[in-house]
């Protein structure tokens, strides 16, 4: 039997000339399109992951809190209460080149033109800090951890690295040159003082300033550049008084949440850059007044049958909105305003006066081990909302461009190692170990050792000022 070749359908082969021309034209169009696509998204970019199904995966993590705030914030004016954990989003990334202990927090924003300073990781820098406790005479003893006998030092070496760029080590000469003839003011509570002293220690290494302060305001003057560093104490950043008001008696602190601290408003024209921070004093006893009406109180509410309209957390958010709007609208202030977000504490197992402790913490928390503090979460959220309401206010307008949010809260949640803990004084007889019953000694897990993590805040301040004065842009 003779086999015949298989029959081929005419629809497949042979093709007519118009069909061949159409196929060639389609192939040419595909090649041109693919070439343009590769030029716009080279191999290795996110497009490659999209085409081949290897896009970086995203996952959600729950972080829980074990801290609890109470009423009296001394020695650190703070306390916390538990609340449900919030959900935070992270992106997975390679950690091969990073130290064993680091935290990486990514925030995806493909159209971002300026590097986000506040998403990144902590890495160990063997170079160490730019100053020591012995090279800075302006250092509150409670934050002088080495001088108070803390035996470990590695907490001084961890530095912050943004994911998309570098955050340079603090350059004192660069700072003084950028700020030539200008004044930077830190305004807030004792944590603001902590940051101001860090800035002074960093600058002191290149020049000894002249003290021009008084009872109302600390001021340090650098002659070579005519730069002034100032600090104003303002516990709540809004108007406060002690006189009787409505059914609130004499002696209880009253806060007018819709009126800024008048001392700040009076001093503003003298400043060119202002760093605002507050919040921890909202755990203290106070009465909240809004539109000349008592709307709430912290650790004070005489009529338990009536419901307060405003909680201490909500009061904090209102106060942030109030001070930012007032600063932005001040007719004689055109400077840069930086709002530093909530500084997290690390009292584990209780509050400062109920057995809370950060004793023995010598390194940052490892990735995925962040213990979220419920009170920190809600206070940060209210602070961020207050900032957003202020910048979106129609009356603020273009001045919102001179208002910056320095978002340090999550990154510093990993730095439980950076507090004085029991090393709060030079007393050689102080207790630094847990007792036979397991109770920890009195300690400070709110403020920051110097040198230590707090110096990073001023690296961020310098970069924010540089971007503002040099026209923005990220460092590679």
TrEMBL record:
TM region(s), chain numbering: 20-39
Topology in membrane: Single-pass membrane protein
Pfam family, one: PC-Esterase
Domain called Trichome birefringence-like C-terminal: residue spans: 167-463
Main localisation: membrane
Keyword rRNA processing on entry: no
Region (Disordered) residue spans: 61-106, 413-444
Top-rank taxon: Eukaryota
Keyword list, A-Z: Membrane, Signal-anchor, Transmembrane, Transmembrane helix
Domain Trichome birefringence-like N-terminal: 114-166
Biased composition, class Basic and acidic residues, residue ranges: 426-436
Location of the protein in the cell: Membrane
Sequence ranges of Polar residues compositional bias: 77-86
Family: Belongs to the PC-esterase family. TBL subfamily.
UniProt-recorded name of the protein: Trichome birefringence-like N-terminal domain-containing protein
Provenance organism: Brassica napus
């Amino acid at each position: 039997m003779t086999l015949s070749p298989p029959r081929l359908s005419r629809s497949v082969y042979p093709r007519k000339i118009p069909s061949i021309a159409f196929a060639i034209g389609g192939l040419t169009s595909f090649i041109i399109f693919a070439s343009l696509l590769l030029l716009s998204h080279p191999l290795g970019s996110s497009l490659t992951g999209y085409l081949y199904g290897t896009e970086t995966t995203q996952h959600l993590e729950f972080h829980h809190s074990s801290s609890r705030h109470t009423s009296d914030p001394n020695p650190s004016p703070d306390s916390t209460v538990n609340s449900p954990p919030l959900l935070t989003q992270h992106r997975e990334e390679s950690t091969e080149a990073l130290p064993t202990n680091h935290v990486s927090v990514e925030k995806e924003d493909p159209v971002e033109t300026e590097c986000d300073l506040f998403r990144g990781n902590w890495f160990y820098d063997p170079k160490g800090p730019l100053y020591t406790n012995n090279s800075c005479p302006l250092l509150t003893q409670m934050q002088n951890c080495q001088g108070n006998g803390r035996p470990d030092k590695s907490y001084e070496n961890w530095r912050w690295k943004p994911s998309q760029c570098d955050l340079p080590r603090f350059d004192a000469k660069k700072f003084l040159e950028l700020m030539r003839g200008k004044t930077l003011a830190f305004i807030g509570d004792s944590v603001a003082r902590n940051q101001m002293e860090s800035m002074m220690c960093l600058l002191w290494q290149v020049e000894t300033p002249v003290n021009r302060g008084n009872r109302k305001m600390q001021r340090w003057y650098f002659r070579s550049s005519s730069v002034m560093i100032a600090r104003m104490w303002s516990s709540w950043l809004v108007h406060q008084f002690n006189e009787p008001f409505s059914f609130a008696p004499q002696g209880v602190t009253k806060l007018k949440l819709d009126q800024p601290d008048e001392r700040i408003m009076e001093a503003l024209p003298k400043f060119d850059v202002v760093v605002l921070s507050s919040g921890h004093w909202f755990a203290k006893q106070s009465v909240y007044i809004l539109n000349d009406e008592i709307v709430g109180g912290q650790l004070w509410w005489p009529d338990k049958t009536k419901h307060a309209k405003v909680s201490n957390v909500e009061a904090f958010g209102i106060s942030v909105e109030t001070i930012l709007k007032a600063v932005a609208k001040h007719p004689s202030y055109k400077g840069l305003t930086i709002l530093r977000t909530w500084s997290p504490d690390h009292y584990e197992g209780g509050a400062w006066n109920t057995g809370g402790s950060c004793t023995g913490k010598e390194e940052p928390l490892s990735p995925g081990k962040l213990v979220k503090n419920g009170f920190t979460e809600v206070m940060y959220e209210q602070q961020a909302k207050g900032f957003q309401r202020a910048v979106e206010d129609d009356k603020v307008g273009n001045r919102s461009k001179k208002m910056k949010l320095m978002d340090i809260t999550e990154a510093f949640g990993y730095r439980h190692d950076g507090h004085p803990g029991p090393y709060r004084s030079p007393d050689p007889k102080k207790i630094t170990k847990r007792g036979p019953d397991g109770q920890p000694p009195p300690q400070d897990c709110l403020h920051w050792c110097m040198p230590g993590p707090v110096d990073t805040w001023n690296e961020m301040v310098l970069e924010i000022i540089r971007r503002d004065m040099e026209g923005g842009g990220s460092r590679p």
